[in-house]
Amino acid sequence: MISIRLFMLLIKASMRSRMQYKFNFVFSTIMSSFIQISEFLMVALVMMKFGNIKGWTLYEVSYLYGVMMIAKAIYRTLASDVHHLEKYLVSGDLDAILIRPVPVLVALMTQNSRILFAEIGQGLILLIISMKALMASGQISWTAVPLTVFIILTGAVILFAIGLATAAAGFWLTRIESLQNMTEDASQTAARYPLSLYPKWLQGALFVLVPVGFVNYIPALYVLRHQGGVGLLLGTLVVSVLVLWLAMSFWKLGLSRYQSTGS
Q: Where are the domains of the chain?
């Protein structure tokens, strides 16, 4: 509980420091909004032309897209610099964090924190529009709302675990940008769409090696299509706990092997 209170205190302090530059905050939020919405609009225009992709409608894809966007925004809001560990390793700035009287991971997670309003807002808009349409057609009911909240939270945990494990690899590799492009950026982009679109080998990679398929696709099969039963949701919860434990263990191992840059 002490670590949680300390974490929240450091998060607030970091956000207050970033809000000192209000113009930069507003400008970056607007630009991020344009980037995010343009990516989705390109997909929406294609689907509006052809109707669906392998049986998945535009509203169902919007649901997957919105869940992934919000889950990623929560992860990046609460653990921003986990994704940027490389710069601490290269510059030697991690040494300064090591001597602080707080857990290293807590200190790192609270560095440069900011709320990703653009991503969260657009994700919510996509979810509201898609779920309203799906409810109107009778495909889902109001029970999908709390289930979606559950999916977003477990998804954020899974994305954090993937990011933490990738960052921990930096204790051996130092340079991890290329690895992050695969485990985080590329995999999360792929998981915005139904994984049934991809070949079997890629589906296996997105379920096992980098389990982003459990962020939105697997639980959505139950919520949107009533497939697999509630076991899909329970399985998602188990996967989130398991990958978090594995990532934390890998992080602790890597941190124990860390050697200063000597600078």
A: 36-256
